[in-house]
Amino acid sequence: MIPRRGRRPAADAPLVHRISSVLLRYPDETMLACLDDITAALPAIADPADRTRLATVCDHLRRLPPAEAAQQYVDTFDHTRRRSLHLTYYRHGDTRARGMALLTLKHAYRQAGHEPPEAELPDFLPLILEFAALTPEPGHRTLLQCRAGLELLRQALHEHSTPYADVLDTLCGRLPEPDRHERDTWRRLAVEGPPGEHVGLEPFGPPEQTGLEPSAPPGHPTPSAYPMPRASLSAREGR
Question: Which site from 139, 150, 180, 236 is most exposed, i.e. has the minimal number of CB atoms within 10 Å?
Answer without folding.
Answer: 180
